[in-house]
Design goal:
This protein is an alpha/beta fold. It has three domains: about 110 residues, Phosphorylase Kinase, domain 1 (2-Layer Sandwich), CATH 3.30.200; about 220 residues, Alpha-Beta Complex (Aminoglycoside 3'-phosphotransferase, Chain: A, domain 2); about 180 residues, P-loop containing nucleotide triphosphate hydrolases (Rossmann fold, 3-Layer(aba) Sandwich). It is built from 18 helices and 17 strands. β1 and β2 form a beta hairpin.
Length: about 525
Amino acid sequence: MPNSDLSVQRKLVAALLDGRRYPHVAKTVRLIETHISWVLLAGRYAYKIKKAVDLDFLNFTQLDARRFFCTEEIRLNRRLAPKIYLNVVAIGGSPERPQFGAQPAIEYAVRMRRFASSRLMDNLLEHDRILPQHIDRLAAVVAAFHQHSPVAATESPFGTAAAIHGPMLQTFEQLCVMTGVAQPDTVDALQVAFEAEYRTCQDTFSERRAHGFVRECHGDLHLGNIALIGDEPVPFDCIEFDPALRWIDIINDVAFTLMDLLHRARPQLAYRFLNAYLEASGDYAGVALLRFYCAGRALVRAKINAIQAMQLALSRQPSEAARSACGEFLALAAKCVARREPALIITHGLPGSGKTTFAQIALERFQAIRIRSDVERKRLFGLAALDDSRGAMYGDDATQRTYAHLLQTARMLLTAGVPVIVDAAFLRQAQRAPFQQLAQDMDVPFAIAAMNVDRQILGTRITQRLAEATDASEADLDVLTSLQATQETLAPHELRYTVRFVNSGRDAADAGNWLVLEKVISAETADPRQ
């Protein structure tokens, strides 16, 4: 049925509600309908049929187009979810008596392996069943996916400043006319902030495009499009109908997940995800665009809810939930685009003293970006975090290179306007001084988080960590002994900025220490010990 309309498709879908039409056992068939597709849940499989509709952002009216986009959906989603997305199936026969695999085809469907909706990460999060290791694994999956995704061609329009600015303007134009849902003053103020941030980011958009950061991404990476299958996060349902929505900067892909976690009031998980992604990818330069992209994702969700509220009102259905959601996303967009007060925290302590444990808690608490010397040292030498360097990169020259790299990255992140935690030993004053000077030059609060722990505990932790082989640090007992002999104590002028943590197997710090540290990085007092 080439060029078939919706009424004919509806007959086909009605016929497919009969489980006997399928080439496998389907005792029951359940239908899920969206504005662009029907999904038939039949036995162990799901069949997705695209509606013959022509909307602003897609055109599925032609059978050939539906077949093409079914094929694209399989191609794109098999990159991340090959066990879910199986193949494209032709449906022949007639709308009233359809036959799978018969020719000529009257329709096409994407065939998928079913999974329980309770395994979606948004549902799991609502029931507090998302664990930190799930977030870490998701970050690793997304980083690996981005690393292997194709780069946009230089002659393509994707990722240009103009291609980014146009949709933003269109979203504001649409919100401006929905005055019954979105408050005009709120939208106007938000547009001013967006335009200012766009001008700040404009050159960075072009630079990142030139350096290959615009790639064929997922495009719709919110928690409702990620399933936890066998304890493994599996993103699915990426955007197939508009290449411009998936050929984007990789940090824009990350921004959707970050925004979704923030909207669900899980900032600790949001920044755990962001930091895990950055450590896996090394894309700290992308942080400069996060305000714009994160706010942009929230803005689009506000628009979608505003449209839904207006449609519900026109049909005399309750629209308060959609109106409320629109307001929430507008408020989140304003919060995301606003510039924050940066601060710089460096750690101080021997191997095994708990620096990384402290830094993990601190980055979640302060919504900061962490830079780990153990990870970045290996990155400089072309190694992954858990690769064994065989001790080849721990000489004085390598250490100097590592600290210079940490300093450069910290400067870049502070310029981007985010709090920064540098997780390194910093056992020599010459290593600490440039970071204190950086904070002074950039006029941001500075703190040293010094880890104190019994020497016996240090040895036990190091031995256990090496045996587990799950951490980037390669320091052994010989390294510990050497560093103990050569470390330099904190100078009197450094103690003014120092907060000491006793980390003997309990939490990284007690409540009092956290309050002191918060005073330091918020510059509430000249001397944090007062």
